[in-house]
Structures are given as C-alpha cells and as structure tokens.
Amino acid sequence: MAEIRVASSAEAFINEAARHFVTAADQCIAGGGRFAVSLSGGGTPRPIYAALADAPYRDQIDWKKVDLFWGDERHVPPTDPDSNYRMVKEVLLDRVPIPEKNVYRVPAEMEVRMAAFSYEETLRNYFRGEWPVFDLVYLGMGADGHTASLFPHSAGLNEEQRWFIANYAPGRETWRLTLSKHAINAARQILVLVSGAGKATRLQAVLTGPQQPEAMPIQLIHPVNGEIRWLVDEAAARLLPPERLS
User: Fold this and answer.
1) Alpha-carbon distance 198 to 50, whole Å?
2) Contact residues for 197 (Cβ-Cβ < 8 A; gap 6+)
3) What are the two backbone dihedrals, phi and then psi, of residue 183, each rounded to the nearest 5 degrees?
C-alpha cells in the first residue's frame, strides 16, 4: 500500500518535497551515478522548485549530475506563459548551476505528434531500455483525477507501447504532451503532490473508492519495481480515513 504523508502546513509541504528531491539525488549520485528526474507542471510544484533553487537545498545538490525531464507539457512554445518548461526555467533553472545539456525540454513548439515522437526519441537515447527508468517522477493530481496529461476518458490511457505521446484532452479541447502510464510506472520513485481543499473529494475517491481508472487516471499509477508516495496537505487530506495516513 502506498505511503500517504500529510503536511501540517504549506511550509512543511514544500520542505518535505524538497528534502525528498535532495535525498533521492544523494542516493543516486553517490558512487558517481546520475539523477534522472521527471518534473511536473502546474501550481502545486512551483514553490517546491523555488525552494530547491534557494539555500540550503540548492547547495546540497550536485547539479552537474542531475538530468531534468518533463512528464508532460502544454502544446505551446517555451516562451509561452502556459509552458511548464518556462515555469521551471524561471523559478529553478535560471537560479542553479545546472549545465544546459542536462535539461531535456519537450519541443512543444513543433506539430504536436512530431513533438511527441521527438521527445520519445530523446528519452530512448538517454535510457536505452524497454522503458525509461526515472530515478524520481514528480506527479500532481487534478480535481478531475488526471495526472501528468493523462485525462479522464482520453485515448492516451490505452497506450501500451509508446513512452511519450500526444494526448487530446476531452472537455478541454486541447492537445497535451505526456509520458504514458507504463513510462511513469517504470520509475524507481514516484512522488504524488496534492494540495488544496478543492481536491479533497477526488483524493478520497481515488484512494478509498473503487478502481475507475478511465474516470480517474491517477489510479493507473502503480510502479512495477519502484515505490510511490503521496504528499498531501491537510486541506486535501481532510476526508481521508486516519488509518490510511502516516
């Protein structure tokens, strides 16, 4: 059963997620290894990335050995205000000594399917296995139960072979670019970040209700050989039974 941790404050939420990043990096880099991370977009992780760019966390990470990828992206140029890459660049990349060659952004300015194929090629050249084995994947959860850009009742939920896909979001009338479920589930560690009272009902349904992954795609996330942890704030956790919490 997945570990579910409840942060007592916004500051505790940010610091626990940042410490998780630092600890995972230390473990992977020890002995000369590298640390491959898939980042999430949206508002929830933004203050976490900002914290990683400040002392003390910034100085505890060997940024030369960190490789950053994106779990999903909006179909917009990298300078667009909606770009997940632009958000991370502004709050993290521009403030830490990470080499440019270690940053693997999604080429979302391309035609959407070509962008997906291009990024999958980038991932395959880096990982060279059956699936990409990220050391850490940050995920969020939307109020509709989506994660990355795997939306309820979207065609991408049925993908069995591809690593990275173009996925049309029903109801949002837009294309997104995203890791597939199997690519996410190959990770060594997955940290799901959920905050806000508006997500409490959905979080309760996801964690304690029946399995309905077509309606709540976050339920598709079950790492094959890794571990998954949930970090939630008190507002999001308010409807969860105490026995599920740690």
Assistant:
1) 23
2) 235, 236, 238
3) -65, -40
- In degrees and rounded to multiples of 5, residue 231 shows phi and psi of -120, 115
Q: According to the model, what pLDDT value does residue 1 have? A: 67
Q: Are 149 and 155 in contact (CB under 8 A)?
A: no
Helix (H) or strand (E) holding 91: helix 84-91
| 3-state SS assignment for residue 145 | coil
| Whole-angstrom distance, CA of residue 34 vs CA of residue 142 | 30
Write down the pLDDT at residue 243. 76
Q: Measuring CA to CA, which residue among 139, 185, 135 is closest to residue 22?
A: 135
What DSSP letter does each residue of 156-207 carry, written as one string?
GGG--S-SEEEEEETTTTEEEEEE-HHHHHT-SEEEEEE-SGGGHHHHHHHH
- Whether residue 143 contacts residue 199, with contact meaning beta carbons closer than 8 Å, is answered with yes
| Cβ partners under 8 Å of residue 30, min gap 6 | none
Q: β-strand 227-233 against 189-194: which pairing, if any?
A: parallel
* Residue type present at position 228: I
Token pair 């173009």 is at which residue?
166
Low-confidence stretches of the chain (pLDDT < 70) are: 1, 246
And the tokens for 64? Answer: 């030369």
3-class DSSP state of 67: strand
